[in-house]
Design goal:
By secondary structure, the protein is mostly beta strands. The protein has one domain (3-169). It is 7% helix and 50% strand. The chain has helices at residues 10-16, 165-169, and strands at 3-7, 19-20, 23-26, 28-35, 38-43, 50-55, 59-64, 77-81, 86-90, 104-107, 111-113, 116-124, 131-140, 146-157. The strands form three sheets. It has a five-stranded antiparallel sheet, with no helix packed on it. The chain is globular.
């Protein structure tokens, strides 16, 4: 599947390009594709844009911000088929090392675990200046369930002077 993309920010367009076949893209403005001879597109404005979208041959998986009051499924992964119908809403996984619910903050490119394809899904405690806790869970790209045992944890203390992506671009 070949996708045509446009972005809100020119530096992101330089990174990802205007055409992509598969993979994760950040903050797209518009995505176009042809499926079974019919053109389709998804388009957003700056207030309801997804943070990330995984483009695949048979589906699109979008992450919308929890601070987005416009989108009907905030802080979830939204699975679209290629006819741009919502197939499934995937809630954040349960945190293994935290008692509170953690929102999804990002997704990454596909990872192979035991010859199966997964997408890393990052959940975190937020952009705290004092402490940051993040877990990465792995979503199976066949059944769209999280791996039951495989996950990573990252915890940092203090803060660097480098702005986060959210501080630079907004949510």
């Amino acid at each position: 599947m070949k996708y045509t993309l446009s972005y809100f920010y020119s530096d992101i367009e330089r990174i990802y390009g205007k055409h992509k076949e598969c993979g994760v893209v950040e903050v797209p403005k518009r995505i176009e594709w042809d499926f079974e001879g019919t053109p389709y597109y998804l388009e957003w404005n700056k207030t309801d844009k997804p943070l990330y979208i995984l483009l695949e041959d048979t589906f699109l998986l979008a992450l919308f911000s929890s601070k987005n009051p416009i989108h009907p499924h905030p802080n979830n992964l939204v699975l679209y088929n290629l006819k741009k119908e919502v197939v499934k809403i995937i809630a954040p996984p349960k945190a293994k090392g935290s008692k509170c619910e953690l929102p999804i903050i990002g997704i990454s490119d596909i990872k192979v675990i035991n010859e199966e394809h997964f997408i890393p899904v990052h959940i975190a405690s937020g952009d705290s200046a004092e402490e940051f806790y993040q877990e990465t869970h792995f979503l199976d790209l066949v059944n769209f369930e999280f791996h039951s045992t495989y996950y990573d944890v990252m915890q940092t203390f203090g803060r660097s002077n480098v702005p986060t992506r959210y501080e630079k671009y907004g949510r």
